[in-house]
Amino acid sequence: MSSPQKVFPGTLRDAADRGRKIAMVTAYDAPSARLADRAGVDAILVGDSAAMAVLGLDSTVGVTMDEMLVLTRAVSRGARRPLLVADLPFGAYQVSNRDAVKNAIRFVRDAGADAIKVEGAGTTIRRAAAIVAAGVPVMGHLGLTPQTATMLGGYHPQGRTATSATRLLEDARTLETAGCLAVVLEAVPAEVAARVTDALRIPTIGIGSGAHCDGQVLVWHDLLGLTAGHLPRFVKQYAQLGDQIVAAIEAYVADVRAATFPGDAHTYRMFSGELPVFQDAINERSDT
Ligand code: KIV
After folding, report:
1. Least enclosed by CB within 10 Å: which of 55, 116, 186, 226?
2. For ligand 1, is residue 26 a contact (CB within 6 Å)?
3. Is the pTM of this model over 0.85?
4. Is the pLDDT reported for residue 3 higher than 90?
5. Residues facing residue 86 across a β-bridge
6. Which of 186, 209, 216 to mutate to test the pocket of ligand 1 (most atoms within 8 A of CB)?
């Protein structure tokens, strides 16, 4: 059951402090957002995974600010209670703090987001601090960061060596110091994610990073069985909606071809007494 209370960044932290796990899911349109809200999620992420999930692109790097703003606006109309986090897409924050702040503000002012998410550490730390200083809550994202997957050598788990795990822990601490409200840990070994979670006061949200994180996030289409093709091993499918949708559309196609749809229940009729008058008008016209 969904709680009627609006979720704020502090709500997530309170939940984590009390040991209640945070549930987050992505969404890219108003009806999906409404369903996620009804189902009681704490947070919705308008992820740049929209690039693949709904725009048919091969990676997240091709999605633009304008596309992300359209999707975020739609989601904000569908769900008011969960914390609404929008991904700053690739190119929207890498060049300068000024770009980062300007684009983050667009998500809040023009699209109804409560917070934005940025990937990585390095210069991202400065961007995160600048965005927080401008009054926009920021979620970090470490481990497998899809926007820079090429630099990482592909879509592989991160932090599998002691050296890279130590760097990941340091990056997480720095994002916390920069003022981030939470950090997503993607494809990080469970032992590493557990230690990062224990070291931070802000919540960690895992995806492929084990059960010890303060919360979990999954991509809408993966969770519901709507993704075509390969799924990462960390995905658990809770439904096979793709199969159900195909079966429903096949039934519709068969009905249309057999002329059994639309039936009376789906059909409008003229007001009583109007048909003979209409028919007379047709007949008169064909007589002349
Ligand atoms: O874009 C996205 O959906 C994400 C999640 C996988 C965390 O960043």
Report:
1. 55
2. yes
3. yes
4. no
5. 46, 116
6. 186
